[in-house]
Structure formats: structure tokens, C-alpha cells
Design a protein that fits this description.
CATH architecture of the largest domain: 2-Layer Sandwich
Order of helices and strands: HHHEEHEEEHEEEH
CATH topology of the largest domain: Beta-Lactamase
Largest sheet: 6 strands, antiparallel
Distance between the termini: 36 Å
Number of strands: 8
Length: about 220
Amino acid sequence: METAGPAGGARPGAETAQTLDRGLRLLHLVADTRAGLTVTEAAQRLGIGRAAVYRLVGALSGHGMVRRDDEGRLRLGAGVLHLARRAQPLLAEGALPALRRLAEQVGATAHLTVVEGGEGVALVVVEPSWTQFHVGYRTGTRHPLARGAAGRAILAGRSGDARPVSTAGELQSGAYGVAAPVLGVPGLEASVGVVALAPLDLATVGPQVTAAATTIATALS
């Protein structure tokens, strides 16, 4: 039999779940606001009082997830980066098989690009084994989301558009890219793509890239 909580009040378990939900929502708000948030802005967006926000900020700050800058605005803390680094090997492990197949099929350098700090970051890169020449694309390379096939595919994926995107010379003169978003993985904004030294046929390469993105989404879900 379930034991009722104090008269007129919520059960302790329900209160804990609500606090956790609010803390996570606050963390997402801070992550999505590049200019940072004031406590008042956070309270308005969450629909709760300032005092409640201060309590959440105190708990999150204690774990390094949120910090306050010189102007008192809430920003992500170093603890989030630590969690992200711990998660990256898991993402890489899930993506590698599909990226290897894609690189060999297309004969081009394949990559998984993720969003970090509002930019695209090459998390995993696989080069083809049989080509004489191919693009050297370093893991950790960063670029604006509005430039290059990988970033443009991520932006398109935000509206649910899974169609592959192609670009030419946007990040590097003489380089051609095709990418498709990785959709359906909660908390992950990413794309799968290939980059080559010669033009890529979107009608041929596009479905291959999209298939790899779907396979990776399934592996990471």
C-alpha cells in the first residue's frame, strides 16, 4: 500500500522528481542561450520563482554544471565539458563501423560531426583505405554550422529535414562535401558526411550518407 505524504503537501519522491526536472530544464536553457541568462530571465522561462532558481543554480554550481559570469549571467560550467568528454568515446564506438563502410563505399573521408559550443566539431574521422589521394580531415576540427555540408545538415535536421546536403569549397578550397543529419537520438545534434577532392554526385552519394546516418542513429539510440 502506498503511504500518503503530509496533508496538503506533495510526497518527497514527487518533490525530488520535480526539482530534478527543473534543474535539467534550467541546464538546457543555459546551454541554448549563448549570451547567458539572468536569474530573472530563467525564472520567467521556467515559470517558477527567483528563489527556486537560486536554489537550482546553487546545486548545479556545486557540481560545476553552471557558473555565473562577471555580469551575473548564468553560463555552462566546466562540469558539462567533463561529461561531454566522457560521452565522446561512446559516440565514437557506435559510429565507427558505419563510417568505415561509408568511407570505403564512396572512396572519400567520412566523418561524424557534433555540435559543441554552437559550432560543428569533427568527433570521428575515417579515411578510405584504397584511394591514392583523399582529404586529410583532423579529428577536433571546428567550423561554423552555417558553413560546410556537415553544419548545414545539422541546421536542416533541427527542422526534421533528413535530406542530404552538398557543398563545394565552403570550408576548404577544392574540397567537396555531402552530409546528412543524425536524427532521433535525444540530446544529440550531429551529422554524418563525406569530404572529397573531386565533386560528389549527390544522387549517388546522398543515399549512402543518409543510410550511414540512419545506422548510426540506431546504434546510438
